[in-house]
Amino acid sequence: MLIAAASTVVVGALVWAFVINTEGWAKVQAFFLDPAIALASLPKIWDGFLLNLEVLAISVVTVGVVALLIATFRTLRGPVFFPLRVIAAAYTDLFRGMPFIIVLYIVGIGIPTITNTRIPPIVLGVIAVTLTYSSYVAEVMRAGIEAVHPSQRLAARALGLGYVQTLVRIVLPQAIRKITPPLMNDFVAMQKDVGLVSILGAVDAVRAAQIAASQTYNFTPYIVAGVLFVLLAIPTIRLTDWYSARLRDREQMGSIV
Amino acid sequence: MSAVLTASELWKTFGEKEVLRGISLELATHEVVALIGPSGSGKSTLLRCLNLLEPIDDGRILLGEEDISDPRVKPDAVRARFGVVFQHYNLFPHLSVLDNVTLASRVVHGVARATAEERGTRLLERIGLADKAREHPDRLSGGQQQRAAIVRAIATDPEVLLLDEITSALDPELVGEVLDLVRELAADGATILMATHEMAFARDVAHRVLFLDGGVVVEEGPAAELFAAPREARTREFLARMS
């Protein structure tokens, strides 16, 4: 504990001394870390950030619902469901493969153009995020569903539970415990990707920073927006670490979770 | 005694492999019948076909008077009338022991939670696991888990209890407690069809024994007779190997 603290102080001091003595540090400070500009740009960036949060909050729900649907389709057995399985597989292939920014362009600029209507950027953003992220999350969910041993389904069906009852009461609760860490990782990735809705013309944190930067000829607003996203992500990241560690501990104790 | 379960000429193939080749059997109320035979003789498949966990290719199954092999029959409703205990217990690891026991009552049979839990607790008391009711199954020993699984199977008062080699996965010293429970259920008048490798137990508890080999019933008869004086050469060979 003491050694760790001492070593941290020494390394920190070395890095600090090295950085502030580097030629050009003053320039970096002036262009990236201007406190006055940071303070001045914060209110607008914060307003924009609330829009990002809004897109994020809605998307969490839509992604969850669509992903669960797709994952269920992919795990259905029997020849009757072949078309559903194919559609679900094609969906995940397509949107996992396609760069998010292309999905954004197609949805955000394509849809308003062909329908010739004004659709709020927040709606378009949610659609784009949902298309891309539901494909990732669906695959994680599918892996979780398939990781539940078939004997569990068998036991539930033997008791007379139907397909849906078995899924809801036996398979999903066990699958969710297994997939929570990877799902939270996807959530972290989504938290920053909602910053890309700026290219739809929405004045979110990134766009607000861009405006402020071009007005002041200074990059500090970008740093401000970046820090907001990092602060948003940290609790989730810590929570993921904590939960993963807890799962590991429980498994070592011999529990099946 | 009236027949609870009547199977006639059951056929089942997995791909190329014919697992059941025209098996017939009858199970009367309060009767305990043991299925014995080498691994792969079709015992487990037969049990799964009887409660429609596996569809049969041909044949007829009557539960009471009702033809449950009729494709119009709802399999979920049929399965709810059976109790099944598996070799590997298959308790639900995310539910407490009590929730495992009461799940079917609550979800399938629509019994109120309080009523189901009262009965579940009584059953767990009877097998000495009342103090484990709120624990998850992984805190129990193998023998305790299997006894909890048996209680889960009987909690809904099934018409027939199907036991699929329920002691095969247990450490030898835990087999006794599980067999004792089955013996008790038999004494209480449960109707039981069990696939088993415990010959001494089958001889002791079963009224009748069916010897299966290669997907057919090679020989059947009262337990005492079949074990004491098997008629078929294949039965004699099998019993000699098992003892």
From TrEMBL, chain B:
Database matches in InterPro entries: AAA+_ATPase (IPR003593), ABC_ATPase_HisP-typ (IPR030679), ABC_transporter-like_ATP-bd (IPR003439), ABC_transporter-like_CS (IPR017871), MetN_ABC_transporter-like (IPR050086), P-loop_NTPase (IPR027417)
Lineage, uppermost ranks: Bacteria, Bacillati, Actinomycetota, Actinomycetes, Micrococcales
Topology in the lipid bilayer: Peripheral membrane protein
Subcellular location: Cell membrane
GO molecular function, one term: ATP binding
Species of origin: Protaetiibacter mangrovi
Protein name according to UniProt: Amino acid ABC transporter ATP-binding protein
Domain ABC transporter: 5-239
This protein's record includes keyword Disulfide bond: no
Keywords on record: ATP-binding, Cell membrane, Membrane, Nucleotide-binding, Transport
Pfam families: ABC_tran
